[in-house]
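Reading is simple: each integer encodes one residue's backbone shape. An example follows:

___
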Amino acid sequence: MGIIIGADVVPTNSNLDLFAAGNAEDLIGLELKGLLSSADYRIFNLEVPLTDNETPIEKWGPNLTAPTRTIHGYQAMGIDLLTLANNHIMDQGAQGYRSTIKTLDAAGIAHVGAGDDLAEASKPYQFCFSGKTVGVYACAEHEFSIATESSCGANPFDPLWSLDHVEQLKKCCDYVIVLYHGGKEHYRYPSPGLQKVCRRLVDKGANLVICQHSHCIGCEEKYKDGTIVYGQGNFLFDDEDNEFWRTSLLIEITEDWTISYHPIVKVNNCVRLADEKQEKEIMDAFALRTEEIQDPKVVEEKYAGFANTMLSDYLTAFAGKRTLVERVLNRISHGRYTRLRVKKKYEKKDLLRLCNYIECEAHRELIDSGIEKSSRGEHDF
């Protein structure tokens, strides 16, 4: 039939037992199970370490974990390859990563996008399909999961190296898939920067670039000889229930190398293939956004508007800890207090200074290094 690519598969408390029992019929339904079974190859994203010991790292955001017995659910879905290049694979530290690798290897499920060090993490994965060699390269934006030259973790996107990796992979493969774990959560359009990165990946040889991580369906761009998908939503991740998390896309590469989509919907703690009405609604919205981003001005304008809605949150975070009184006032005012506080605190010159610190490579590297070491107790400022 083809290659099926899905996004995040994360067991949660609501369906751990279904995963542990390998109950694919309840988890994904008979129709969806049949679709996966008919595929020649299945690729998904493992957005959680599989471990029976909790050793959470210090980070901003949730520390995900799932017991090793949930591997039976992945096996029951017939998954062939799991990508590990994401912002959660190191949530339980090195032991969680090693437990995950051991569990996948024992289950006979291949993996890509993470390793014992940076060199191993950046290695692609290859397999044969329809008489041709397919290469898979997986990378992630920099959060708390990234491998270094001497420590395990996810393969980071680094324009100084990742573009070369894709170019080299294309030399030995007929078809190259890049799974890029990045973009802003709950935003259905590409940022100008993300669009530039994805287009450059195509320039270097990628035939299909899929941006995962946004937890929502985005849009598609045909660029030169490649296809870019800016967000496909989760596959099976029962963590939130909102307009973003309720729908997603499976991406299929057919034997003639065309791209098609299979919409799916969240049903309580499980997922199902969309019915005819749901499919039309999902694909019509996807097509509309796809049409919109053909105009570069729309990409800029949509992102500028989104950035404006997010700015007060970022500036509040930069301002440091809020008092109890401030938190109460903000809750009572439904966020208006924070916005007013930020406007009063930051004058134009303050915003320009922050802009310089963030945009300038030297400042940004220095800030990042200082904060990282201070957060680990290595520096006292």
Summary: The mean pLDDT is 94. The first strand starts at residue 2 and ends at 10. DSSP finds 13 helices and 16 strands in the chain.
